[in-house]
Write a sequence for this structure.
């Protein structure tokens, strides 16, 4: 049984706590948070503390706080020879290097408060400073997920940037689509099946194989017509840049 | 029983044919295509012809050919008082106005050859020049789909532009994500659960509510760092423009 202490009481910590509740491989023995108030949801389920001096003996300490608090919190830890990991996609492992043994336990998913997640399909990206520590991290990750990867800090940073493209930026394009629908009193739900299928498609074909539309067909009449029809300069700029990028990427003549 | 003739033998026609096979409300009695060779897949299933003079008597003639052939094909039809519809998102209904009764039967989905689709969740957008014809089109559409909408030509054009954003452009962002992964020897599949969840999320929350990431947090340190890390000017341009657009849309100070 791997004993875990969670540091932080936000979304990621809560979802991890719930996932570890379902496994016999690991047990969360304590949750720490600076603010007592934020610990209320955990109080009846597990030992909690808002003092770093009261941290229990565990095998792994998982830091799941806001990105810009990770390093500061790590520096306050005085755990001798204990494995400390953070859960952030964008912070280098070395931010924890005041500890002897440290690493990363990064679940790559977008977590929404109150929305249950199925951890079994969530990729968990692992890294450790001491080679042999990867084993216990793998055991812990595999207890809740079927998609466990060893990813070094450079790769993790690339993944995080790629995630901005396929999550944050994609969501913004959904918003532009939503905006265009609203401008013409069309319910956005008409587009739900299309956007779901578009996402599903790239899990079996590569995005390059899946590309369709006026840009890759080089259909300049439709492209001009679309740009002219758009209501805002912002929409026009996005349309123009992404059309150009599709054509460059697929080697069409411009 | 609504008698249907399909004009065209490509993806859309094939998928419609398969969907109509499953219902008792409609029956495809003939498939036309200019090229006999393209009709081979239909020959053992239904009457076929490559001559417009041999078209059978039907209630509805559905044109499912390439966008730039729709109008020309329509002009060759000499059907007296028969309802003729096309299936295109980007062509005005009036392209068929050499017929007396005409309309649009537009299934809004991305069709991949050989990949079975579940028509029941595919939105079908309808329009007719004669008010009373909407009824038979609705009956036909409802026989294969649970998502039937009356959408006029102006709205349909807006939908088609919105679809470029949520399908073609989104797919291109997937490709940029794929590219960044490849550059760092990270399997793109690590991002599959994230991109699927991102799509699923906007079917229950609005895209505006779903927006996360460094742009909306106004996290300039992470933004600069990401842009610097990108390998190509194209990636940098997309990152910069979409970040700016997110910040403008959400009213963050720049």
């Amino acid at each position: 049984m791997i004993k875990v202490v969670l540091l932080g009481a936000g979304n990621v910590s809560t979802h991890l706590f719930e996932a570890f509740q379902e496994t016999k491989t690991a047990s969360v023995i304590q949750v720490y948070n600076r603010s007592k108030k934020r610990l209320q949801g955990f109080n009846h389920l597990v030992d909690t503390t808002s003092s770093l001096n009261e941290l229990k003996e565990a095998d792994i300490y998982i830091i799941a706080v806001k990105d810009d608090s990770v390093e500061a919190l790590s520096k306050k830890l005085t755990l001798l020879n204990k494995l400390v990991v953070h859960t952030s996609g964008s912070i280098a492992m070395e931010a924890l290097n005041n500890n002897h043994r440290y690493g990363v336990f990064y679940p790559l998913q977008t977590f929404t408060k109150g929305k249950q997640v199925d951890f079994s399909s969530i990729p968990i990206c692992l890294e450790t400073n001491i080679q042999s520590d990867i084993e216990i991290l793998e055991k812990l990750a595999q207890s809740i997920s079927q998609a466990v990867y060893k990813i070094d800090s450079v790769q993790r940073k690339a993944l995080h940037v790629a995630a901005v493209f396929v999550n944050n930026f994609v969501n913004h394009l959904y918003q532009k689509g939503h905006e265009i629908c609203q401008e013409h009193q069309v319910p956005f739900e008409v587009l739900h099946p299309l956007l779901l299928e578009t996402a599903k498609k790239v899990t079996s074909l590569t995005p390059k194989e899946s590309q369709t539309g006026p840009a890759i067909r080089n259909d300049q009449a439709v492209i001009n017509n679309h740009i002219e029809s758009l209501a805002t300069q912002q929409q026009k700029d996005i349309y123009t840049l992404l059309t150009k990028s599709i054509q460059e990427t697929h080697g069409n003549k411009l």
Summary: The longest helix of chain B spans residues 153-183. The CA atoms of residues 19 and 115 of chain B lie 13 Å apart.
